[in-house]
Design goal:
single chain, about 400 residues, five-stranded mixed sheet
């Protein structure tokens, strides 16, 4: 690719900053409203979610973020229009590029067919480069139809060259994401082997150096940790807020390692409505709607405060925190979650206190912790690789599409 030098404001608006060298001398790009570049396709039928199957001949596509949301064998519902097509989620604003026969799911999508002047694949990437903002959702498709689209002459081949470049990058991101999913699946399976299953007294997989060690006993969690409850400092007291100490709530507990939060408190707040969990403490969400999906369990990488929906566990000297963390995560599906009167989930303290924990000697604890931590490092590296590819793609798109603001 080569950078294009521009002499006038008008020319800058219709020529990207970066072009493939074979198109440097070709004409400037044209522009038109999206509504003039597409037609909409009506499906022969719209399948209700109750008819979605786990397997079938044809994928079902609806407004969800996932490309495929179900399967069907109903050939009469399959879109007969020539492919490829673009799917627009009328409520989610999700865009999908579809190259294979499919059926439409429940209401809430528009099926777009590109007119001969523009490639569907190029158009998809162009629209993806400038997604609709959240506040535009209520006006749905009418906003998108007014979007200005800039594009080179389809006969020059530049549209296809750009589409091929971006699709190749998408394929690479997909492949790396599949590697990440494989690593996560491997970790999940390994954890099921390294800790005893329900009803068993030893794990199914042990490191060679611990084969001949005696069978270890189980202990209730309350014999291995000290439980602490958090709280919320008075919101009306500014001296307690906007400090340097992360204040952990359900919204912060998305990753296993936790070191920051949306809100922070000051040292004055400690003992005045909230408590401090020291670095290495294990945090468990015990109340909230998130519990109906999963039980968030994290380890504090620094001293943090926490609210009343979270319990902090401080381990005794014979327990390695990261080992206990992994074991609690492996046990999380067995932790009973009750429903409160307001529709949130709740884990009773006595349930946590009575959890039976397998406790080998510290050498084996450390070996297991090191193994799983190493795998987590690989997962983090893979995640960073994917983030870097996405950042590269975003920067590339800013260069190979003209700046939109000057066209509106």
């Amino acid at each position: 690719m080569s950078e294009v030098k521009k002499n006038t404001k008008d020319k800058a608006a219709l020529v990207p900053r970066l072009r493939f060298s074979e198109f440097l001398e070709t004409a400037e790009w044209g522009k038109d409203k999206l509504g003039e570049l597409i037609t909409t396709v009506s499906p022969p039928a719209k399948l209700q979610s109750s008819s979605y199957r786990m397997q079938g001949k044809f994928p079902i596509i609806d407004q969800s973020q996932e490309l495929i949301c179900g399967w069907t064998d109903d050939e009469s519902a399959v879109i007969a229009e020539s492919l490829p097509l673009i799917i627009f989620g009328d409520h989610t604003c999700a865009l999908k590029f579809v190259e294979n026969p499919f059926a439409q799911g429940a209401d809430g999508i528009k099926i777009l067919k590109a007119k001969p002047t523009i490639s569907a694949e190029f158009l998809f990437h162009s629209l993806s480069h400038h997604p609709l903002a959240m506040e535009d959702y209520k006006r749905h498709f009418s906003i998108l139809k007014e979007r200005t689209v800039v594009f080179p002459d389809i006969k020059s081949g530049e549209q296809q060259k750009i589409a091929d470049c971006l699709s190749s990058l998408d394929d690479l991101i997909t492949a790396e994401t599949q590697k990440l999913d494989t690593l996560k699946t491997h970790k999940k399976g390994l954890m099921q082997q390294l800790f005893p299953r329900e009803g068993e007294t030893v794990p199914r997989l042990r490191f060679l150096e611990f084969f001949d060690t005696p069978e270890h006993k189980f202990k209730p969690l309350n014999m291995l940790v000290k439980f602490s409850s958090g709280g919320t400092p008075p919101k009306a007291e500014p001296a307690y807020w906007e400090g340097d100490i992360p204040w952990i709530s359900a919204s912060s507990m998305h990753d296993m390692n936790i070191s920051d939060a949306d809100l922070r408190v000051t040292t004055m707040a400690i003992g005045n409505g909230t408590r401090l969990a020291k670095k290495g403490a294990i945090l468990i969400l015990v109340r909230g709607s998130m519990l109906f999906k999963r039980v968030p369990i994290c380890i504090a990488l620094r001293d943090v405060a926490f609210n009343q929906d979270v319990k902090a566990l401080t381990v005794t000297p014979d327990v390695i925190s990261i080992f206990l963390l992994y074991q609690l995560i492996s046990l999380s599906s067995r932790i009973a979650v009750n429903e409160t009167g307001i529709g949130a989930g709740k884990i009773e303290t006595e349930i946590l206190e009575g959890l039976k924990i397998w406790l080998p000697d510290t050498a084996e604890q450390q070996r297991i912790a090191d193994c799983l931590s190493s795998l987590d490092d690989h997962i983090a590296e893979q995640s960073q690789k994917i983030d870097s590819l996405k950042t590269h793609k975003k920067g590339l798109m800013q260069q190979i599409f003209p700046v939109m603001e000057s066209l509106e």
